[in-house]
Each structure stands twice: as structure tokens, then as C-alpha cells.
Amino acid sequence: MKAPALPAGILPACLVLLAGCGPFSSDKNSERPAAARAFPRADRPVAPIVSTRWSSEEARDRVNEAEDIMDRAGIRSGMTVADIGAGEGYYTVRLAKRVGDRGRVLAEDIMPEVIEALSRRITREDWRNVSVKLGAPEDPKLPENSFDRILMVHMYHEIAEPYAFLWNLSPALKPGGELIVVDANRPTDQHGTPPRLLACELAAMGFRLEELVPKPTAGGYFARFKRAAARPDPAAIVPCALRS
């Protein structure tokens, strides 16, 4: 439907209002992490972190979720894998079992209390091939050229600074390594990520979508990406958005 015309005198008032918002916008930008300010904001809502778990481990195992996702991702013995947004460690411990003694798993989260609880679980269950790391909203702080697979399961929509985050994550993949995203096909403010939006944001950072398949037993879809281009200059990034 065509928008109604603005009454006379309204446009100048709007321009004055917008001009007065300059310092406010600057103030909002100053609230962002310093390392993220060179990157554009996400042009869509960012879901708040409301829980460290997507569902109970028992319910997820009943539908064979982790085994199915790990099979699809090609995770095998001896690999090095990062579990981003590891939460309580559902995927972390199952990845550790899959990659075995010759492999390694790095579990990352941005919440100190989550990392502390996960560290206790790893110690209690004696997963000697797992390490944990505290990341940041704009940087997972992964070592470069280290991972065959990086998994982000039901957490992409919670990344507050996706362009900075992906830019910093990209060098952590080994040549031929893959980024795996599992999420729900719904708006980001409803704790999901529409696949077209996901593919657009990752393409802006030099990733190519290799596979996208529905995974109802994992609560959404499975997406597999590879690096296809160098990281862009942060100032050249144009944020993606889905328009109705």
C-alpha cells in the first residue's frame, strides 16, 4: 500500500529531528565493543540470550540430533572442531567422543558463568581432548588455521556483532575447513535466522553456501559453508537485510 503524503511542514520538522539524533547515534555506537565499531551493525534484530540450552539432552538424543548433524558435517576421528556458543556442552562432549583421542574440541562461549560450569563438566566427565575458551560478542578468539569444522548450533541469531564476529572467525578455519550452522527458519527476534539472510551475511564475509537441508529433528535447518574469498575491508561491508 502506498504511504500517505506528508502534510506540509512535516518534512522540515522531521529533518530537524533527525539532525538532532546525531549525538544520540554516536552515543549508541560508543556502547558497542571498541573492536566492533569499524564494522556495520546487523540490519535486523539480535535475539537476546535467554537460555544456555535449546532443549534437554535426553530429548535431543531421542531424535538422534547430534549424531545426525555430525554425520552431515562429516566429523570424524582425528579432527579439530570448535563448538561456538557451547552452552552446557551438549555438542561439546559428543564431538569429543566422535573425534577421539587424536582429535581436539574447543568449546567457546561469551558468558563467564557458562564457561565455568562447562569447565566443571569437562573435568568431572574427564574429557581430556576438550578445552574451553571465553570469547567476546565481536570475536570468538579462536587460534588461526586450527579447525576442520566450526559449529554454531542455535546461536547465530544471538550474535550481537555478526560482521565483526565472522571476520574474526574466518582465519580459524584450516584450508578446506567448513563452517556449520544449525538454526530455525524464523525471524531473528524469534530466535531463528532465515536461510536467505544467513547466506547473505556469510557471503558478505567471503563464505559460500555449499549445502542447505531441512533438519526438523534439530529444530530447523543445517547449513554448510566454505571460505570462497578473502575477508573484506570492514569499511566495505554492506549489511544484509530481508525486505518484505
Automatic annotation (TrEMBL):
- Signal peptide positions (record): 1-19
Q: List the InterPro entries hit by this protein, alphabetically.
A: Methyltranfer_dom, SAM-dependent_MTases_sf
Which Pfam families did the record assign? Methyltransf_31 (PF13847)
Could you list this entry's UniProt keywords, alphabetically sorted. Answer: Methyltransferase, Signal, Transferase, Ubiquinone
Question: Which GO BP terms apply?
Answer: methylation
Which stretches make up the Methyltransferase domain?
76-185
The GO terms this record gives for MF are: methyltransferase activity
Lineage top rank: taxon: Bacteria
Alphabetical list of PANTHER family matching this protein = TRANS-ACONITATE 2-METHYLTRANSFERASE-RELATED (PTHR43861)
- Please identify the protein, giving its name as recorded: Ubiquinone biosynthesis methyltransferase UbiE
Organism annotation: Sphingobium chungbukense
